[in-house]
Amino acid sequence: MSKEPWLDDDEQKAWRSYLLMTRTLETHLERHLQRDFGLSKSDFEILVNLSESESGRMRAFELSRSTQWEKSRLSHHLTRMEKRGLIRKEACESRYPEIAITEEGMAAIKACAPAHAARVREFFVDVFGPDRMSVLGEVSDEVVATIGKHCDTDCPLEDRS
């Protein structure tokens, strides 16, 4: 790590371009989800996780871990999704219920996923191309691993479950 805390001009430009790209892309994709399918980015994230699980259900702590959301945010959002019929909370052997995707939730994710994937391809994958996409994947994995190591050694979180 550099001893100099400040970013040079090229580093600053790249960092700010990255931030603008991620905000612009996320905002644009979420607008389409909301306008075309009535789903928020958060709805989509929960439905993707549940639809990709073998049983169509997950424990809340698993959803919290995969989304990196705080417990209260997850709880409030799941309550809203349950009222809309996208998920249901089911009793299980544990003190806390499992979260299950409903038929309505599965229909919603099946309806929006192809259009969402097409937009991700158009605005992200095709812009990067295969060579740069491969490099981006490698660098992204390295950044996540570096942050994970930092959290494990230098700044452990109080409750990561």
From TrEMBL:
Domain HTH marR-type residue range list: 32-133
InterPro entries: HTH_MarR-typ (IPR000835), MarR/SlyA-like (IPR039422), WH-like_DNA-bd_sf (IPR036388), WH_DNA-bd_sf (IPR036390)
Signal sequence annotation: none
UniProt-recorded Gene Ontology molecular function terms: DNA-binding transcription factor activity
Any single biological process term in GO: response to stress
One Pfam assignment: MarR
SMART domains per UniProt: HTH_MARR (SM00347)
PANTHER family documented for this protein: MARR FAMILY REGULATORY PROTEIN, TRANSCRIPTIONAL REGULATOR, MARR FAMILY
Protein name: MarR family transcriptional regulator
Lineage of origin: Bacteria, Bacillati, Actinomycetota, Actinomycetes, Propionibacteriales
